Amino acid sequence: MPQDAGHSDPRAIDVVIVGAGFAGLYMLHRLRGLGMTARIFEAGSGVGGTWYWNRYPGARCDVESMQYSFGFSDELQQEWQWSELFSGQPEILRYANFVADKLDLRRDITFNTRVQSAAWNEGSQSWAVGTDQGETVRAHHVVMATGCLSSSRMPDIAGRDSFRGRTYHTGQWPHEPVDFTGQVVGVIGTGSSAIQSIPVIAAQAKHVYVFQRTPNFSIPSRNGPMPAEYEAEWKRDYARRRAEARKMRSGVVSPLNDKSALADSEAERRANYEQRWKLGGTYFMQAYNDLALNKASNDTAVAFVHEKIRAIVHDPKVAEKLLPTNHPIGTKRICVDTDYYETFNRPNVTLVDLHDTPIREITQAGLDTTAQSYAFDAIVFATGFDAMTGTLLKIDIAGRDGASLREAWSAGPHTFLGLMTAGLPNMFMVTGPGSPSVLSNMMVSIEQHVDWIADCLAWMRAHAQGAIEADGAAQEAWVMHVNDVAHRTLYPQANSWYMGANIPGKPQVFMPYIGGVGAYREKCDAIAQAGYEGFRLSPVHAAVQAAE
Ligand code: FAD
Ligand code: NAP
Question: In 19-61, at which residue ranges do the beta strands (DSSP E only) sit?
Answer without folding.
Answer: 38-41
